[in-house]
Amino acid sequence: NVLMVYREIAQRVATNQVYKESEKARFFKGADPWLIASAKVWGAVVVTCETLSGVGTTKVKIPDICQQTGVTFVDLYTAMRAVQIVL
Q: pTM value?
């Protein structure tokens, strides 16, 4: 269920020694961990404008957490093309 996956994400972020404490707090204040947990449980894809930051980053970013937890993510333009939105 979503709550169990949220706990896993919270544990992963909270125990990561590389992330800044202020970044951890920012991440938990918002909906990001709930969004990722819900996507994992429901088999959904997360759409984000953020990009992977990679190893050694001090910021907690949606794509990094998605990648670490096995959740598929795409950028906004990829999602728009997938549903055939043309600007």
A: 0.90
